[in-house]
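Support case: user asked for a sample of complex input and structure output to validate their parser. Sending the pair below.
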Amino acid sequence: MALGVTEEQEELRDSVRRFLADRAPISRVRELMETDDGIDRAVWEQAGAQLGLLGLAIPEEYGGAGFSFAEQAIVLEELGAALYGGPYLASGVLAATALLASPDEAARRDLLPGVASGEVIATVAFTEDDGSWDPAAARLAAVKVGDSWRLDGHKSFVLDGAAAGLVLTLAVADGRLSLFAVDGGAAGLTRATLPTLDQTRKLARLEFDGVPARLIGSPGDAGAVMDRVLNVAAIALAAEQLGGAQRVLDMTVEYTKVRHQFGRPIGSFQGLKHRLADLLLEVESLRSAVTYAASAVAEDSSEVPVLASLVKAYASDTYFHVVAESIQMHGGIGFTWEHDAHLYFKRAKSSELFLGDASYHRERLATRIGV
Amino acid sequence: MELDLGPEIAQYRTELRDWIAAEAPPELPGLFDWNMVMTAGGRRGGQLARAMAHPAYAEWAAKLQDKRLVCPQWPEEYGGQGLDAVRLAVLNEEFHRAGVPRVNRGMGESLVGPSIIVHGTPEQRAHFLPRIISGEDRYCQGFSEPNHGSDLAAVETKGVISGDEIIVTGQKVWTSGAANANRMFVLCRTDVRAEKHAGLSYVLIDFTDPGVTYRPIKQMSGAQEFAEDFLDGVHAPLFNVIGGVNNGWRVAMTTLGHERGGRATVAHLGYEREFWELVETARKRGKNTDPLIRQRLAWCYTQVELMRFAGLRTLAQVASGRPPGPEASIAKLFWSEYHKKLGELAMAIEGADGLLRPEGDGYPVSSWQSVFLSSRAGTIYSGTSEIQRNIIGERALGLPKEPRIVG
């Protein structure tokens, strides 16, 4: 394991940060969050085709760049810092991991190159109306009609589900959890964009009425695939949360240095300084954890399941704590629509709830370490 | 996962591991759980002292000294091996793995030695350093005073220069290891008219001098790990002033700067051991199925793991030739605050049994009661959590200092 940051990784971070500052600044985030899909196609194409960010951790044989998750975590951190609202997590992490984790080589060859280049926006639909993050709760039914499969039922809380051209869908076939590839424009598929608390993160509800689907692997494969997807996604999301928390902490520290009250910068008061020190402790701890967990994913370590729940719980608590404190420390301006704090605040809450909150993951952690 | 530190370090690790396997007295690992968390004032101090009195410990200490593995991070010319932080970390890891103790010279090794190495004259180095390595000089710290804890630069203990001597008079407090010490490093005021940081001197005194008396302080845990010390006209040659008269603040700060060494990757190990002991206790009491207890145990496990990750990150950073990042400056605040929570959880798991102490004279406590009580000191000694937050806020975040009140 190498936890030291290489020069190559530093360069990657710098170039992603510059790209986002230039093409996806917060003013643009605000415009896009008012749209249905939240996607700036030009930025998406550039990220995929020119910068190779979408296929960063996808092996070269499937059209990716062949780097590891350690590099992808750096990209995710920067995306989180910029509140990027496009379908990177859905397509580059959820869908790519699902395909890579499935035993279906043909599907990987057919579908991954499009995901890697960004030509295809993909997502994984696994949650339903009951909001359970447990794949075993899936009820969407898959029935074989002749040689092909048809899906009936619904999915909800699907990340970028309305924009995706490829929806990898968790369904029950012959009583077993199975993964299917569904075309975004398939007949019988109805998609509705859901109004989200966090407008920078788009969720959709999908109705399936005899929708034709391609089985990925065999019936019963999806349990193991979803375990991997959810573990990697939890760590990916934690990387985003780290980026957001760091950005907000930096922003808040700067503000408390320049904002004067009672004739002194407010950051000189211990009432704020000590709380900021605690936030730094949390953000730095999260950074150590995310760095370690990303290495573990890259090395396919057996520690991944434990780390996934550990970092997701800690990242959820940390990001929310940082942003909540940030609003308080910004004073009146902190709870206005005009200031960006609320965008991060809402993202922190949506990231906390998505894939299960801190308590949920601490319980899983307790189980996974054998308490 | 283990950190890949390159072939040279891997070879160093292998050689060290083989040497320990060949040389360590076989009874040594069984004498004491050398990896366990030591809380100041915890009841394990007595067990440690007994283990260190065993002949196997003396045999081991002699072997380590021959191999220059006592104070190994000191430069070669001063009796060490000049071990860098990475090798020191490997050394600590391998000693832990083998269940054998580092023979360390306490504050002599971590605080006094580095100060003499940086600020001492060649004659002072030649005189004092070998005596620390051999164990002949065993230092305790004379910094804090009854009226000056966090505000260390305000110390009032007087040092009066008289001919080629300095005469030290005053009161010190919160001295750990006083019973084992024969020397004390003292921060005293040698110029009362100077600005408070400018009039201080750093003096090494004979702690067995008739002018020295000390009284153990009984802590809330019932243990007596600290002492208060009364210095009544203790004479020391001016030779024992390190860094020159009135330059003590700078010397004292060097000292504190050396408090953190290559322990980054082993610091969590005791907490890890302790955590699993608590899980075992929870199982025995049937509390491991209580959802609220499970939440808190998972939280504690996370904290211990975060220490491990931070240590690895620090080591990776140092191994690549960069200074440690902010994660190193938060370590003290992190473990001391964590340990209080762990102690509180332990009492929750003990439940009604936490109400009762073991029978016996004095104030004997159970091991979890000991952790619960003694962990409260952790956020106070070696810089309170409030001082730590000031340091983190001002140095790591660059926040402005509090305006000073003149007077």
